[in-house]
From TrEMBL:
Gene3D superfamilies: Leucine-rich Repeat Variant. Pfam families: HEAT. HEAT repeats lie at residues 115-154. This is PP4R1 phosphatase.
Length: 270
């Protein structure tokens, strides 16, 4: 019964946390019994069960309860199978979504060697625009997960493709995450490649794309500033913030210091 399997998935994270806290008593229970169930339900025939399994997996990764070996040997192979070119459309959309969400929780090496090649393939998926839309919306997070070298070598060419996609929603998603992508690249790439690309989005034929680009203009310009002198930086939640200078902190010592959020890279996501 699907409802039973769904309910079971919702109970996995609290059980896993309990086992983690009681590891001396149950040293291998999670890896032997629970993790195989989570992995198996990622391919369940019922979409509610799959959704519950995906949510459970993200919670387990967030809590750092899944061993690196299980991620590389059990979780990633399943997601790669589900996102393969000949995979069922519904499974593929779900797989690329979970790949994007879990990228920030995995080691850079795992993402770059196991998931990045498939992500690049999915960016060019000509069959499903939903797949390309998910890739575009999460592009900044993937860049941040793999770092500057892999971003410039592998991801920037794909970003150019998505920014010229025939579906305007794709171009709009690219405009919204432009700051996050730019922040991951070198000043030279920003100047010579991303600036002309951004101008093309500001001049787009679709007014929704132009509007999104103009809203990202300030944050994009801020990535050209020297963080050490301007105090601008990107927080973990993707927001552009200002770090108060030492002089400002001293002059306002009676008030608790705080960061000023300027704009989130995904604040206007559709």
């Amino acid at each position: 019964e699907p409802t039973v399997r769904t309910e079971l998935m919702e109970q996995i994270p609290p059980i896993a946390i309990f086992l983690q806290e009681s590891r001396p008593k149950f040293p291998t229970a999670f890896f032997e019994y629970l993790m195989p169930i989570v992995v198996r339900y990622l391919t369940d025939v019922n979409n509610q069960v799959r959704k519950a399994s995906q949510e459970a997996l993200l919670i387990l990764l967030e809590q750092d309860l899944v061993a690196q070996s299980d991620i590389e040997n059990k979780v990633c192979p399943i997601l790669l199978d589900l996102s393969a070119p000949d995979s069922d459309d519904e499974y593929k959309v779900e797989a690329v979504n979970i790949i994007c969400k879990m990228a920030s929780m995995l080691s850079r090496t795992t993402v770059e060697h196991m998931l990045l090649p498939r992500f690049c393939e999915l960016c060019s998926d000509g069959k499903l625009f939903q797949v390309r839309k998910i890739c575009a919306a999460n592009f900044g997070d993937i860049c941040n997960a793999v770092g500057q070298e892999a971003t410039e070598r592998l991801l920037i060419p794909k970003f150019f493709e998505l920014c010229s996609d025939s579906v305007w929603g794709m171009r709009k998603a690219c405009a919204e995450c432009f700051m996050a992508v730019s922040y991951t690249t070198s000043p030279e790439v920003r100047r010579s490649k991303l600036s002309p690309l951004f101008i093309s989005l500001i001049s787009d034929t679709c007014r929704w794309v132009r509007q999104a680009a103009f809203q990202s203009l300030g944050p994009f310009i801020s990535t050209f500033a020297n963080p050490s002198s301007a105090g601008l930086y990107i927080r973990e939640d993707g927001t552009l913030s200002i770090r108060p200078s030492a002089q400002d902190v001293n002059s306002n010592s009676c008030q608790p210091s705080s960061n000023i959020t300027l704009m989130s890279s995904s604040a206007n996501a559709a």
